[in-house]
Specification:
This protein is 43% helix and 15% strand. The radius of gyration is 17 Å and the shape is globular. It starts with 6 loop residues before the first strand and ends in an 8-residue tail after the last strand. The protein contains six helices and seven strands; from the N terminus they run βαβαβαβαβαβαβ. Belongs to the short-chain dehydrogenases/reductases (SDR) family.
């Protein structure tokens, strides 16, 4: 089947890494749905990307399983199949365990870890039918712990482990699973505003290119876990 008939769902696709991935997929000929907790943000991103291909913006909260199922069904109702899930949505709450609030812990785990589970669970039946691909966006914080990272480290260690386990669950079903673990990326993450000072960081289009490379990989080969870093980190 040609890529012009293939579809992808990108969670957290209204900005940052998700936006960069969606742009790459559109250029490759995929039909793309981007989701956000805010429908207006998802639709605005879709409008900005529409020159590159067929795209829709959907409201979906990865913390809510029913919300995820609804978004997947909307995609299936429109295009009939799902070929790629990019589970990207994530947040960052940082601070010592002494200061980290219960709500910050819960929101981080619910979004970054349970949200990936809900996204996969909502998509897995459709992906088995298409023998599709799941790509999760973890982080180098998923193997490297640091002070102030209790919630974020826990969530991303979990995403890394979850992704590797479901890779083993699903590869005999024809579904490939990879996790990408970026270091510093120039995004809006954690209220950052990308600027020229972020030029040394990984750019969102770099992660998009990496996703594209995975999808072009010979089907016999599965890069299951990919660490990616800035080649020349800041000296600051």
């Amino acid at each position: 089947m040609s890529k012009e008939n293939k579809t992808a769902l990108v969670t957290g696709g209204s900005k940052g890494i998700g936006y960069g991935v969606a742009k790459t997929l559109l250029k490759m000929g995929y039909k793309v749905a981007v989701t956000s907790r805010s429908l207006s943000a998802a639709e605005k991103a879709a409008e900005k990307l529409s020159d590159h291909g067929e795209i829709i913006g959907l409201e979906a909260d990865v913390r809510n399983f029913e919300s995820q199922k609804k978004a997947v069904q909307q995609l299936l109702d429109k295009w009939g199949q799902l070929d790629v899930l990019v589970a990207n949505a994530g947040i960052g709450n940082f601070g010592s365990v002494e200061d980290l609030t219960v709500d910050e812990w819960k929101d981080t785990i619910d979004t970054n870890l349970t949200g990936v589970f809900f996204s996969v669970k909502a998509c897995v039946d459709a992906l088995k039918k298409s023998e599709g691909y799941i790509i999760t966006i973890s982080s180098l914080a998923g193997t490297n712990f640091f002070a102030g990272g209790a919630a974020y480290n826990a969530s991303k260690f979990g995403v890394t482990g979850f992704s590797q386990a479901i890779m083993l669950d699903l590869r005999d079903k024809g579904v490939k699973v990879s996790t990408i673990m970026p270091g510093s990326v120039a995004t809006y993450f954690n209220d950052n505003e990308p600027s020229e000072e972020d030029a040394w960081k990984i750019q969102i289009e770099d992660i998009g290119e990496l996703v594209g490379d995975l999808l072009k990989m010979n089907p016999r080969t599965l890069p299951s876990k990919i660490e990616v870093r800035p080649s020349r980190p800041s000296k600051k």
